[in-house]
Amino acid sequence: MNLSDLRQLTTLQFDECKDRAVKRVERHLGERPTRAHFQRELGRLWTVLDLLAVIVFIPALLISSIHIVTHVGALSGAAFDSLRQASSGTVLGRDLFVAAHQWLLIPLAEGSMILFLVMFGVSRDGWRRWTYFLLAALAVVFVLAANLSSGLGLLESVLAPAFTIGIGLKLEHLILQYLKRSAEVTKKYLEALATWEAATTDATAHPDYRPFLMNEIWAALMKPKTNQWAIEAQPGFKVAAVLRELERENWTHGAVVPQLEFNAEQPAEEVQAPVVSIPFGNTALLPGDREPIAVTASANGHGGLPMPTN
């Protein structure tokens, strides 16, 4: 098989191949992608072990909360006695002042501990990441201090907050896994959306455009009876034939327009035109030429223009 024996496409046929490739890309795109298209049926984050952790976490949290209520109640009661309030505007009673500190500090301490641990695991910014860790450690210190002031033994006081913190770390791990899965879905969705938007604006920018175009070019090459001897050609021959057709546009991207230098004192007919290469066509007319110059085949397979001589 010889590639030179394969009849090339006309410009009209080549343009028709591009039009068909664009239409195939548009059909392939379909509707605008959504996040739901990238959701995957993955294993559950929660297992039977987590159910056991909940059974342990609830009593541990209740006991730790009772110690926090007792500890904070004593401190807030003493603080209210020394508090100087205004006689007008919003005036807090003793019961409201003490109860607010007792019950609101429970989610503030326990919840912030888990929150800042999650933010510590998610963040990659150096100083901000360690700030989250320090805030989580501050919450842990408060919970331990409140339980140690309960009047129970050291082991009994530490047991409930230790289990609460331990199971809180497990909860922090589950939250991180959920955020990781969500981030992966978001990444794939945004990549597909960017590809879809680019292709709807310019179908030739879609990754499938070039394969579609190459298929269409080969199909068009095989339509004439004079080319059907190459239907069973090897893949390398097919690629070479298609790339030869694609070269009709690619060569212009690197073409350099020759710049002619003119001397005001030199007659126009003495200006020499440089040698240029013209891949397609058989005649060319350069500035300063009076007649078309015949293009002859050069050693590299392209037409060449000889340097005019006086």
Characterization of the model:
- A three-stranded antiparallel β-sheet has the order 1-5-4, with no helix packed on it. A two-stranded antiparallel sheet has the order 2-3.
- The chain has helices at residues 11-29, 48-81, 94-122, 126-148, 154-201, 209-221, 235-250; strands at residues 277-278, 283-284, 293-294, 296-297, 303-304.
- It folds into two domains: 3-30 and 208-250; 48-198, no CATH class.
- Mean pLDDT is 77; it is low at 273-310.
- Strand 4 and strand 5 (303-304) form a beta hairpin.
- It is rod-shaped.
- It is 59% helix and 3% strand.
- The chain starts with 10 loop residues before the first helix and ends in a 6-residue tail after the last strand.
- The chain has 310 residues and is mainly alpha-helical.
Q: Give the radius of gyration.
A: 40 Å
Distance between the termini: 45 Å
Which residues sit in consecutive blocks of at least 5 with pLDDT less than 50? 273-310
| Arithmetic mean pLDDT | 77
Oligomeric description of these chains? single chain
- Helix content bin: 55-70%
What percentage of the residues does DSSP assign to strands (E)? under 5%
**Which series of helices and strands comes N to C?**
HHHHHHHEEEEE
Give the number of DSSP strands: 5
Whole-number total of structural domains: 2
SSE arrangement:
Elements: H1 11-29, H2 48-81, H3 94-122, H4 126-148, H5 154-201, H6 209-221, H7 235-250, E1 277-278, E2 283-284, E3 293-294, E4 296-297, E5 303-304
Antiparallel strand pairs: 1-5, 2-3, 4-5
